[in-house]
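Lecture 7 notes: from sequence to structure.
We start with the chain below.
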Amino acid sequence: MKKQNTVFLMLVVIIAFLVLFIFDTGDTAPAYSAISTNETGSSLLYDTLRYMGHPVQLSRRPLTTATNPQHVYIIIQPYAPNVNSERGEEILEWVSSGGRLIFLSSPSPNIMDRIAPGEGRSLHGFISHRIGMGELIIGPAFPLLNASLMAQPQLGQGIEYILREWNAPQIFFAAYYHGMEQGETFLGRLPFIVQLIFAQLAILGVFAVWHFGKRFGKAMPFYEETEREENEHVRALARLLNKFHGRKK
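Predicted structure tokens for the same chain:
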């Protein structure tokens, strides 16, 4: 029994490492994404804002006019899909309804520089546009990559100042524009770390059933039931009566 428990624990540890390996996106995550810890990722900005108490999380849905205007969105170097003029106009319509967007793209000028109405003003190293009831912040993406922020954190501090002034209930890093599209499911809306925990619990559950479940024990032989005839009991009674009368004689 002790040997079985040891084997079971070893399997749990191995499968946990496999899950971590499969879900570890640090090396293979898209460039400029908030889950990439590479030099070309933006996880340093994302993690720092979270550490400072800002309600940041990933969004795997496109920014459209149906998006909640109370939320703040941060789009960094969109390329899968790219933000063209049509998508940009829809995003500006959302901003006009009260949305607040930080759009970072290199090189400059980018699509938002070209279609944003009016002259912007300088704000913490960025250009701010008041559009309707909302606000659009435009700036370069390259200085906010992990490697760049480590050397010069000034623009990262500028974003933190802006977010503090906005005081939004939710701040989304738009991972959708890095090819990280996901269907609208309950699990898909959960934070990445919660998805990882769910995956580990599911695998542990399978091994628990395998280890403790009786149905995974020794195979039981299968006995095929003999089909009885309709009048079999009549012949059986007849044989008993014959034996009875034979003894009586």
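Points to note: The mean pLDDT is 81. Helices lie at 2-23, 43-51, 85-96, 111-115, 146-151, 154-166, 192-212, 232-248.
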